[in-house]
Amino acid sequence: MVACWRTDATSAGGPGSGCAPSAPPTPPTLPTLPTLPRTTADGCLHFIDIARSSGATESPMQRVRLDTAHGHILLSDQATRDDGHLVLDQTATVAAQYGLVHQLRSIEGIKAMSEGPTSRRHR
Fold first, then answer.
1. Cα–Cα distance, 10 to 31 (Å, whole number)
2. CB 100: neighbour CB atoms within 10 A?
3. Cβ-contact 37, 43 below 8 angstroms
4. Where are the beta strands (DSSP E) in the chain?
5. Residue 121 lies in a domain
6. 122's torsion region: left (phi>0), alpha (psi -120 to 50) or beta?
7. How far is it, in rounded angstroms, from Cα 36 to Cα 38?
């Protein structure tokens, strides 16, 4: 990038004018992000906890959506799979209670996928 200036009415390049290379603009400083948990599942659970604590769970629909995500994440780890099924069972009850048919179908689909022929679920 080149910066040019002129100090009088003379033509460009004459006395009183000049061009010189200019320094590139300084990039803006980005905010520091919080340290994320070590695994993807831990990171997801961390952000679900933030959403819950921010008051974003005021309606039954919002609670069911967050709890469905939470249960789905728990199903992804062998150590928490039973907890995931418990969360999804409880969430399905709430979805049915409020007539959230689409969410109820999603919950049932998630549970069915975890219990399919490739499932590692042991009861």
1. 46
2. 21
3. yes
4. 2-6, 17-21
5. no
6. beta
7. 6
Count of structural domains within the chain:
1
**Nearest-angstrom CA–CA distance, 13 and 47:** 59
Query: Is 84 within the bounds of a domain?
Result: yes
pLDDT digits (tens, 9 = 90+) for 16-55: 555 556 666 666 565 554 554 556 667 777 777 777 777 7
- Rg over CA atoms, the chain: 29
pTM of the complete model: 0.58
At 123 the pLDDT is 44
Torsion of CA 79, 84, 86, 90, to 10 degrees: 160
Report yes or no on 66 lying in a domain.
yes
With tokens 């969430």, the residue in question is: 91
